[in-house]
Amino acid sequence: MTKSSTHTTLTRRERQIMDVLYRRTRATAADVMAELPGDPNYSTVRTQLRVLEDKGHVRHEEEGLRYVYAPAVPRHAARKSALKHLVETFFDGSAEQVVAAVLGGEASRLSDEDLDRIAALVADARKDGGR
């Protein structure tokens, strides 16, 4: 995936398609269509897969007459890139602001075990000098 395509915004339907591809690892347009909510049109799904390929999110292989699509990058790499973009865009690059937002809005949903794991991550980051 190129640097410019790494941070492209995906539409809701494109995110749904990517979710299907990450779940299945490989899929035809018909496979993707079968797992999408609503009543998507086959040619629309094919077009969206082509757009995702142009954006650098998807690649395809030809198997006979069929195109089989797969994510172009591993999910963890896409997640890391998306999170970096989110932090830079909405939190001025501040991890502190992200944590404050999560704990402020979601803290009531976090179990004691979740908070212990977060505290351990903070302790590890402090020990490693924040790296």
CATH C-level class of the largest domain: Mainly Alpha
Question: Taking Cα atoms only, what radius of gyration do you get, to the nearest Å?
Answer: 19 Å
Note the gap between the termini: 25 Å
Q: Uncertain runs with pLDDT below 50, 5 residues or more? A: 1-6
Number of beta strands: 2
Q: Identify the strand order in the major beta sheet.
A: 1-2
Reported for the largest beta sheet, the result is: 2 strands, antiparallel
The chain-level mean pLDDT equals 87
Total domain units: 2
Helix and strand run: HHHHEEHHH
Here the CATH topology of the largest domain equals Arc Repressor Mutant, subunit A
CATH superfamily of the largest domain: Winged helix-like DNA-binding domain superfamily/Winged helix DNA-binding domain
Number of helices: 7
Our estimate of the beta-strand percent is 5-15%
Class derived from helix and strand content: mainly alpha
Q: From the coordinates shown, what is the CATH architecture of the largest domain?
A: Orthogonal Bundle
The coarse overall form would be elongated
